[in-house]
Design brief:
mainly alpha, Bromodomain-like, about 200 residues, 6 helices, two-stranded antiparallel ribbon
Length: about 200
């Protein structure tokens, strides 16, 4: 019988350990944000608009960058992906904020702590941009970067991120079908095609 020996992972430096766990925390925060979006969608019946869906995609892309950092190793390219995703998300959220910034122009969805979901998203994406740029200044974390096995709470976070990303893809397909997403959405088109045909 042949036993396959897994290569020994090099120990992380103090800087790499710090930023590794900051990536784990950020991953769980993004999972929480996307789960909150599902709460608005299913518990409150507020289907995401096209701009809302684009903001979710941006969060998912940020999650991909974080997963790459945790699995492949901390690298500037991965932070670059997170940064680009955060910039895109900020543009999408900022556009939605501007659509409703004029008094009397209405809003979309229920507020949370006085601000609507897209406003919170704009704030979070801006913070993501700032933090992504900031962590790139600490080059010590990139020394001896190597792939790492996912274990315990890190593995759980990665599985949750992949799960909510897949769930977003499924719910978007159900809502929009194989065409441009309606704005505002009124139902899941693939589950209620008669409603889409009558609108």
């Amino acid at each position: 019988m042949t036993f396959v020996e897994h290569p020994v992972e090099p120990p992380l430096s103090a800087a790499a350990t710090l930023f590794y766990w900051l990536n784990v925390i950020a991953l769980y925060l993004i999972v929480a944000i996307l789960l909150a979006a599902f709460y608005f969608e299913f518990a409150l019946g507020e289907l995401p608009c096209p701009l809302c869906n684009l903001q979710r995609v941006a969060f998912c892309a940020m999650g991909v960058g974080l997963i790459l950092n945790l699995r492949v190793g901390l690298k500037p390219a991965h932070y670059g992906l997170i940064l680009l995703a955060a910039v895109s998300g900020f543009v999408f959220a900022g556009r939605q904020v501007l659509l409703h910034i004029v008094p009397g122009s209405g809003s979309y969805g229920s507020p949370f702590l006085g601000l609507h979901y897209y406003t919170w998203n704009a704030i979070i994406f801006f913070i993501g941009i700032a933090l992504s740029g900031l962590v790139l200044l600490f080059s010590a974390q990139f020394e001896h970067a190597a792939p790492r096995r996912l274990r315990g709470i890190v593995l759980i976070g990665v599985v949750l991120m992949i799960g909510v990303t897949a769930a977003n893809g499924v719910t978007t397909l159900l809502e929009c079908g194989f065409q441009v997403c309606p704005d505002p959405p009124t139902s899941f088109e693939l589950l209620d095609p008669t409603d889409a045909g009558s609108s």
